[in-house]
Design a protein that fits this description.
Among the domains are: about 80 residues, no CATH class; about 150 residues, ATPase, nucleotide binding domain (Nucleotidyltransferase, domain 5), CATH 3.30.420. The chain starts with a helix and ends in an 8-residue tail after the last helix. By secondary structure, the protein is an alpha/beta fold. The chain has twelve helices and nine strands. Helix 6 crosses helix 12.
Length: about 350
């Protein structure tokens, strides 16, 4: 590709001129399949961008941003690749999905594998397992995002070697997943720990944000509740405001963690999520949990700093859990359900 052609390519990219980009593709890659529409032009554009020697790293980053801002893929996802290319580089034997909820996990239920009545627009009653298993023709392991995070931490993270533990995320919402005797806990529905009832602090008149319960743990201690209280996202709090926010959040969270401790008797509780990354969160939380437990039942393990801990895998706990779910279903440890 000559220097002048590279310049034309970059200008078309910067202008977002898909028709011009498709025309350039035809000139530069005449022997390859030609784009039939704008979507195929963008796919081929990605290849040409990657190959053009004069497209600097900055230009490549710009092109990825240009696509992302328009809701378009910034790479070559599986569904946009030509069928002949889909399985040349990777052989997929199983897929694990740790999904936001609520989800249907009863394997004998007709809606197993569905996201159910979620408030997320466009996702209610989406058959996630059926869609993926039909498209890829492989078994699919499926669970909640927090159960997935718990499984990931159990395999490679903060709960390695333990058989009873809980993972709780404190972010845009609050959710919890439990592993009991090495398996994720399911029942009539998956646990909804974020909606545990809590005592309101004496000087707190905040009504709570939960649309169902108002002042449950999620309604009082999630990221959106912090923003509603203080007028800015939690990550922008500092000084006195941050100290006040941490005392509020950890006080309410400690009530929920104490309830979980007494009901499920975990060997460890792992707390992750965006709010848990705020400065001082884990130190203040440990003090709050110790105080809330009030030395009952008096186990030395409950007073150890690691009884409630951050995730060792950080933001990758859920991804690791997806691998565990895929392994379970591919090995026959969990039976696959046809999509």
């Amino acid at each position: 590709m000559g220097q002048s052609m590279n310049g034309a390519f970059r200008r078309a990219l910067e202008d977002g001129d898909v028709s011009r980009l498709a025309e350039l593709w035809r000139v530069c890659r005449p022997r390859l399949p030609q784009p039939r529409d704008d979507r195929e032009a963008r796919v081929m554009l990605h290849r040409a961008r990657s190959e053009a020697e004069s497209v600097t790293l900055a230009k490549r980053l710009y092109s990825h941003a240009w696509l992302a801002e328009r809701g378009l893929p910034s790479g070559l996802p599986e569904e946009l690749q030509p069928p002949a290319e889909r399985r040349e580089s990777v052989i997929v034997s199983a897929v694990g999905i740790a999904s936001f909820g609520p989800v249907e996990l009863r394997r004998d239920h007709r809606q197993y594998g569905n996201i159910t009545n979620t408030p997320k627009p466009g996702w209610s009653f989406t058959d996630v397992v059926g869609f993926v298993s039909r498209r890829l023709a492989v078994p699919v392991g499926f669970d909640t995002d927090v159960n997935g995070s718990a499984l990931g931490e159990g395999r490679w993270g903060a709960a390695m070697g333990l058989s009873q533990f809980v993972y709780i995320t404190v972010g845009t919402g609050i959710g919890g997943g439990a592993v009991v005797d090495g398996a994720a806990l399911h029942g009539l529905v998956h646990p909804e720990m974020g909606h545990l009832a809590i005592r309101r602090l004496d000087d707190d008149d905040f009504p709570g944000l939960c649309p169902f319960h108002g002042a449950c743990m999620e309604g009082m201690a999630s990221g959106p509740s912090l923003e509603a209280r203080f007028g800015v996202p939690g990550r922008e709090l500092y000084g006195t405001q941050l100290a006040v926010a941490m005392n509020i959040v950890t006080s309410y969270l400690a009530q929920g963690l104490t309830a979980v401790t007494r009901i499920l008797a975990p060997q460890r509780i792992i707390v992750g999520g965006g709010v848990a990354k705020l400065p001082g969160f884990h130190e203040i939380r440990n003090e709050a949990v110790t105080s809330e437990l009030a030395n009952y039942p008096g186990l030395a393990e409950h007073r150890e700093p690691g009884f409630v801990s951050p995730p060792d895998l950080g933001d990758r706990s859920g991804l690791a859990g997806g691998l565990v779910l895929a392994k379970q279903v591919s090995s026959g440890q969990v039976e696959a359900v046809d999509g």
